[in-house]
Every structure is written in C-alpha cells, then in structure tokens.
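WP5 quarterly update. Target: NADH-quinone oxidoreductase subunit. Source organism: Streptomyces antnestii. Length: 125 aa.
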Amino acid sequence: MVAAGYFQTYSVVGVLVAVGVLFVAVAFGAGRLLRPVVPTHEKHLTYECGVDPVGEGWAHTQVRYYVYAFLYVIFAVDSIFLFPWATVFAGPQFGAATLVEMFIFLGFLAVGLLYAYKKGVLTWT
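Structure tokens (predicted):
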C-alpha cells in the first residue's frame, strides 16, 4: 500500500508546472496584445548587423570551423568533468577504481584527439 503523502509531493510538482505554464502563456498573450502591429517592407527584410542584405541568403561556409567548435565543446565539457572527479578522488573511500576509471575516460579522449589529428582536422591551412 502506498502512503497518501507520497502522491501529495507529486501534486506540488504538478501545481508548480501548471503555474509555470500559465505564467508563460500570460506573458506571451500580453506581448501579443500590447505590441504594435505595423508591418512594413523594411520590417520583413533580413536584419544583419544594421546592414541591408546584398545578394542571396545562402552562403558557403567552411565545415572545418564547425569541426573546431565541436572539438572545443567536447574537450571543454570533458575538462569540466575532471574537476568534480578530482574532488571525489580525494575522498577516503575512493582509490584505485576511481583512478582507473579516469584513465579509461582520458584514453577515450586521447583516441578522439588522435583520430582528429590523423584526419588532418587540427592543421590550420
């Protein structure tokens, strides 16, 4: 038999979710009712840094910039993961197992970095 108090805790979460959804709905509704609606040709143009657009909207971009950004995100997240590990590793109940797990994790990072190096991603040309 499940205690009656168990489901009351979920009712608090449900009420908070309902209040959050209601708050967002009221904010969007008020914005829609209060904003001025005066469509002009200039408002329908693409805005880019205050300069009128020239040419088509499609432009070729180098894929390597996305690869650099992707590599940065991977290694930034992984380096952030190292800080909590360092604090946990200092605990008395953790020891060799934690150290082995981190070396396995760093091994996966090293394989990824080696793969990127072999593919020539890390060369700036």
